[in-house]
Amino acid sequence: xxxxxxxxxxxxxxxxxxxxxxxxxxxxxxxxxxxxxxxxxxxxxxxxxxxxxxxxxxxxxxxxxxxxxxxxxxxxxxxxxxxxxxxxxxxxxxxxxxxxxxxxxxxxxxxxxxxxxxxxxxxxxxxxxxxxxxxxxxxxxxxxxxxxxxxxxxxxxxxxxxxxxxxxxxxxxx
Length: 174
Hints:
This protein is mainly α. The chain has seven helices and no strands. The mean pLDDT is 81.
């Protein structure tokens, strides 16, 4: 046992472990560092959608494959590098952002239907004023399960409506 590194602290440090001063035989795990979240601007969302549109033939059944998401992440890293307060746009974060944009698309599509009772404008959203606040509150709270994703569009539009629509499987493909 004299030639072994069982008692050596050097091998523990080389594996990212720190010596526990209270018990040298049980090292402390390395401190956890948390990755910064990816924060998306409207411009970056547009770049994501444009890139996906240029790779639409790779969507197959309406879903993009892992290779496309990896290429999307590389494209975003090259053209929109993260700032000091912004995390990397990984393949997973690009896919999550696209899913969120699709949710917004469907919420706005519902608002655009005459049945919702709201006027909708792509720039100003549902244009809620004092006259229809109660109806809006009912729409997003009481009808919450069906229309919870409409909440951000009270008085703000969804600039990516047409871009997302072009990426949906039911739009002009197949």
